[in-house]
Target: DYW domain-containing protein
Amino acid sequence: MTRPHPLFPYANKWLDLQNTTASWNARLRELARQHHFQEALNLYCQMLASGDSPNAFTFPFAFKSCASLSLPLAGSQLHGHVIKTGCEPEPFVQTSLISMYCKCSTIACARKVFDENPHSRNLAVCYNALIAGYSLNSRFSDAVLLFRQMRKEGVSVNAVTMLGLIPVCTGPIHLGFGTSLHACGVRFGLDGDLSVGNCLLTMYVRCGSVDFARKLFDGMPEKGLITWNAMISGYAQYGLAGHVLSLYRKMEFTGIVPDPVTLVGVLSSCAHLGAHAAGREVEQRIELSGFGFNPFLKNALINMYARCGNLVKARAIFDGMLEKNVISWTAIIAGYGMHGQGELAVQLFDEMISSGELPDGAAFVSVLSACSHAGLTEKGLYYFTAMERDYGLQPGPEHYSCVVDLLGRAGRLEEARKLIGSMSVEPDGAVWGALLGACKIHRNVELAELAFEKVIEFEPTNIGYYVLLSNIYSEAGNMEGILRVRVMMRERKLKKEPGCSYVEYQGRIHLFLAGDRTHPQAQEIYRMLDGLEDIIKRRGGSNDNDQESRNEELITGMGVHSEKLAIAFGLINTGPGTEITVMKNLRVCGDCHLFLKLVSEIVDRQLVVRDATRFHHFKNGVCSCKDYW
DNA sequence: CTAGGGTTAG
Model:
């Protein structure tokens, strides 16, 4: 707004009336460029009210605003204005109109605009907009057909066509077509275009071919920030956390400055690895770069701290967030859940509901698994029914596996089996795996055999399940069963890698194998361990609860597992009040949780064991955390 | 004064 002139205080009003369409357009453009779409639409209404009529330069901004705000009704109203003003044939009006309908998921309208304007149908931009629209709405065959038509009509394909079309490839079944587009792009000389390269890279990731993505990445003569981000988040999505960290280091070495997108990927990998120190370094960098208010990063930080066992820090960040979303809530709930604080997790879930945040499928996974870990069986079952009844969310296999686990831990094995039978979706390996785990706890050999048979249909090479069954047989004294499992493993050439556990201490990773004596502090560690087991044994004698004393027998007799060593190491090296987080291969977990419970009662410290199933890259003894930077 | 596109958290 111009300031009033001292001699003509009413000049503003007069100027507004005299405003030409061009100056409205300029202001509209400015608002749209700054993503102030609501204001842009308001301005458009003001323009109409003032009697100025929109022209062909007005509509693109207005449509873009409708598209961004997802306002199909306003959009079609604007479409009426377009027709009234007669600027429908203008190519950029049409393109933005098509794009608007596509983004509002009213793609039939978009197609109608396209079909009804024969003279604009030969324009690449219109094809581009509609192809991109089909992509956006995951209409694979429509997009492909239109692309073929475009080439048949001799309309020249350009980079933007490719950028719109490549993202239709969203899964492994589209890999073939995606690869052909890659070749196509090369033929059109578009392979030098950074954006097209980035887009192809993402396509390979989404189609499940991270190796092709890496190959393309390595072959790109020029890489931009987005190229690095696409590769880093690609690795992060597949849980290849080690690759992420080494790529991040390489990126820094190249002199590319990371942005929030990069750091989100890196943080999620720190969370996977339980790399607390590395995660903290990233947090410092976030502060230094002024990204501290980015909600994506805040959520990623909550997740990282929660999974590294630093719940205090995770909670502090969570509480400090002004605008929490489902993801923030899910991250903190899952954090409490995985560290056995089910009561808190449930409390937070209820708080989320009353704050008006709508839970989604993942939020339910976090609260269901919290319930099962904390033994809150009834509460968990309540959430499971509420999920569909109150929120219209269809439970997926990931929910069923939580509930099977929930029932299984409570000893309700028959109900768990029935639940699997009644599933509306196909059960997956995790569902049967949960039942197998429950059979281990409650020593049900017969059901275990059934669950095992099913689970290896899905995951024939997952060694953890073979070990689990073998342990079930061994507890039942069934030597024949153990031998049968061994033969199966040998036939399938499965070799059990030694399970390992590790603790991060002063920026270094201290790794232990079962019975390990290679650690420099081995003597102290074993002395601590002997002392602990002594106390447990003595307690067992005085305990009148049968089940518990049997458990304690079991623990002291179970040999020197890797997590025992890791816990002892933590106890030796950290002071009172600190929390010890041990990373351990939980898939083959024996009775470590029980051991943990007993030890934490004895030493009055918080001990945490986290799943380290995917962390095979730490080899032999102590290695420096810095190696991964 | 113009339209179409690529990377982000649980």
